[in-house]
């Protein structure tokens, strides 16, 4: 297997963050976890990641604002970004993709699907 891929998870729920982290680490991914979109933008300026998993509803900067900032930056414009959402705002999958997300995962998270999506987007 190639070297482990770097995954950045932005999720304000510690439970979901820790579960996703453990499951992806078990699949040999290297995980960095933060609590909001602003922290994602700050980290992306300093480090490089293979994929970003973004919760939609977060304090400070939500997932939609964050993906817009990621897409506007030449350095990160092509970075795979996955929305993680309870879909409280009732957006369609198409609307998430139009906003700049490569994929959408609904809560409660299907962890098999999480692993599949992360592998698919980082092995491309």
TrEMBL record:
Keyword list, A-Z: Kinase, Phosphoprotein, Transferase, Two-component regulatory system
Q: Which GO terms describe its molecular function?
A: kinase activity
- Kindly give the Pfam families that the UniProt entry links to this protein: Response_reg
On the tree of life, the source organism's domain of life is: Bacteria
Per the UniProt entry, what are the Gene Ontology biological process annotations, in alphabetical order?
phosphorelay signal transduction system
Which SMART domains has this protein been placed in? REC
Q: PTM 4-aspartylphosphate: at which residues? A: 55
Q: Does the keyword Kinase apply?
A: yes
> What are the residue boundaries of the Response regulatory domain, all occurrences included?
6-122
Q: Does the keyword Phosphoprotein apply?
A: yes
Q: What is this protein called?
A: Histidine kinase
């Amino acid at each position: 297997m190639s070297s482990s891929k770097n995954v950045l998870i932005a999720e304000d729920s510690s439970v979901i963050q820790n579960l996703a982290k453990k499951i992806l680490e078990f699949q040999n991914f290297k995980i960095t976890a933060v609590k909001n979109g602003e922290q994602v933008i700050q980290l992306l300026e300093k480090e490089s990641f293979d994929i970003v998993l973004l919760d939609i509803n977060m304090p400070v900067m939500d997932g939609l604002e964050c993906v817009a900032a990621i897409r506007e930056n030449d350095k990160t414009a092509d970075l795979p970004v996955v929305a993680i959402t309870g879909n409280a705002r009732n957006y369609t999958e198409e609307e998430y993709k139009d906003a700049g997300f490569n994929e959408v995962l609904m809560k409660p998270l299907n962890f098999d699907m999480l692993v599949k999506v992360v592998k698919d987007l980082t092995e491309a």
